[in-house]
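FW: tagging you since you asked about this chain on Friday. Here's the raw sequence from the shared folder, copied in full. Didn't touch anything.
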Amino acid sequence: MIDKSSNLTLYDHLSSSFCVQVRIALREKGIPFNSIIPSGLGTGQDRDPSWSSANVRTQVPTLLDDGGATQVFDSTIIIEYLEDKFGRSLLPETPAERAKARQIEDVVQTTYEAINWGWAEVVWGKRGSEELQQKIKREARRQVKVVHEWLTEQLGSQPYFNGNTFGWADVAVAPMVHRGVIYGDGMEPATNSPLAQWHARIMERSAVKQTLDEMEKGAKAMGDSYTTVFAPGRGNKREYGSHRLEFMLKAGGMSVVEEGLKEGTIRFGWPEGKSGDDV
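HL: got it, structure written out here
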């Protein structure tokens, strides 16, 4: 999507939960932007130096402003930048409410996102034996139910996580819950639950619906191509970082990690590690 009137360029991916968060924030604020999907994204094979020079981790989202003079990465930091520079704050009014919104964001960006990611590794990526895939799926369902219960407590009787108005915490939760809706099979909120009703409510917002529809399109494309892109021998490596690695180990997927390292289809984050005689 190219908007010649915009000074903002977002290195992006349709199905990335973190990119979805930023795109919702931009659209809710009415800020035009240009979206670019970097070549080699997510494979460990950077092919876009303008992107990698702006983000040492070679991850999305990455935001360029002022003709590239300002370079911002990490979804939370990007939205904080948008809050500082542009109007219509997404944060609630009081310090206590703002702290709660940020706490919700932190939980869903770490614990919840990792569960969703682990599901894709075995359902789309077909990693591990069929028996292990089923085990990891059961664990993902169990853990996501716990997260949904916690989120329901945070929502309470309010229409939004931000309170009476849609805001910061809702932007963070939206892509995580919607990914579960895309997956189905027990990863989505229970029918007619407060969380399901919240999801239906936010889908009435044009900025949210447009962005989550994009996410669904991107997720389908990724699911269809995953096993080809990350097939052994192609040199493409899926990044297993921090909370994602923790989920896989907690779910009993140590052999998935070991096999992926042996095949050369997984990697860890920047800076890259060395092993053996090179250490």
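FW: The chain has two domains: 9-85, 95-229.
HL: agreed, and The two ends are 44 Å apart (CA to CA).
FW: great, closing this out.
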